[in-house]
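Progress narrative, work stream C.
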Amino acid sequence: MSTSQPDASRRPSDDRATPDELLHDVPAETTAEDLVLASGRDITPSTLAWAERKLASEGRAAFDKLLP
């Protein structure tokens, strides 16, 4: 049974910074819509085309450039 709670062993302790793997958890299955939303833009035909080009050329790394 899966839960939405992160595994206790992956939770950061109070005395350490949150690991990047928890901050930047991009799902394996991403879409152009996901990239548009992550960029803070509205979903339009032109932003979807931009996101599709970006995903085709950069893959999931496109999200790393957008997310803090």
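Work stream C, second folded protein:
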Amino acid sequence: MRTPLRRRASRALVWLALASVSMPAIAGPLTFDAALQKAATDAPSIKAKSLGADATRSARSAAGQLPDPKLALGIDSFPISGPLAFEPQRDNFTWARIGVSQDIPNLAKRRAQRGRAEADIGVADAETGVEARIVKVQAALAWISLAYARQRLTALDTVLQRLERFVKASPGAVASGASRPAQVLAGREALAKLQDRRDELVSMVGRARADLTRWTGEADPGIAGPIPDFTVEPARLRASLRQHPTLVLAGATIGRADADLRVAEAERRPDFGVDLSYQRRDPRFGDYVSAGVTIGLPLFKKWRQEPLIAARAADANMARAGADASLRELTADLETGLADHAMHHAQWSRARDVLQPLAEQRVTLETGSYSAGRATLTDIADAHAALADAILTTLDREATVAADGARLILLFGSADQ
């Protein structure tokens, strides 16, 4: 009996070991830095851009190469009329031919094609950088949104608990004659309105969690750790603006347009070709070998090459104008963001240092007055509703300040900021 029991125990241990190996590890809550790292690693949009860049890089080796050679097979000078019609064995001018030919584009064109391939790689890498910056910023904003949504919910629950104690005690106050029956209804009404706001905050937490899932890939993400202190340094942000991924992409786009212009200009130079063939005749006659060179004649540049060159030059100028427009747009966006951040910070400080303390003081005073019989339950309910508004307003403004800081630093800062 002991042997089967031991076998069962060993089997159970084996199954537990296999389960521990095969089951995925349960992901813990994400800190701010971990969320950004996971977004940068797992974001499908970044992977797509990176794969596109890899594809462009793989195609680089084919740029500027000679075209494939051509094999030619044929019969030349086959008689179809006259006394020797359809009798090629009697005609010493009929032969079977096999040959190869090779087109050789001019060297400037091949160099331009290689330059165009390098420019494509630069654009693809720059697009990957732009997407990585977008994902990083959006993941940061989603994490901040979830963190403050939870704080709002916790703060409102605290106010609700305090108000509920008064509402539960209100029937006793009515029975003792300290409060009127209508005041009980006012307390319940205020409690219901705060519960409505709580439902909104629960929904906000769900939306924020869904947004963080979008950027990190976590099915049910939680957050851990403190909210970072985003110290905005305007001078440093302005100095690093030139390295913004959008401007890097604009520069790469200019490089590609210039490469297209060089390809068009190379079309004005002639291309070459070589031909080599072997002609096999009747054994009574000798065989031939032929060789030749072809040279392209770009004689109609005014109607063929020059219009294309003008079009590519216009594209290059358009790319430069687009880069200037992007710089102006980013500069305006940065200055607008700095101005809004200063305004939001002042409003948050006012809510934190003035509005919320006043609301807390009002609750304290109304509670004391209620205990002394000089305030009603309605006054208590109004004071708690005002306190909830003040606390949520403070958290809203703090969240806005944090989101402003994260956006400014992660969007406009350099890679090491």
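Residues 1-26, 172-178 have pLDDT under 50 and may be disordered. No further action is required on this item.
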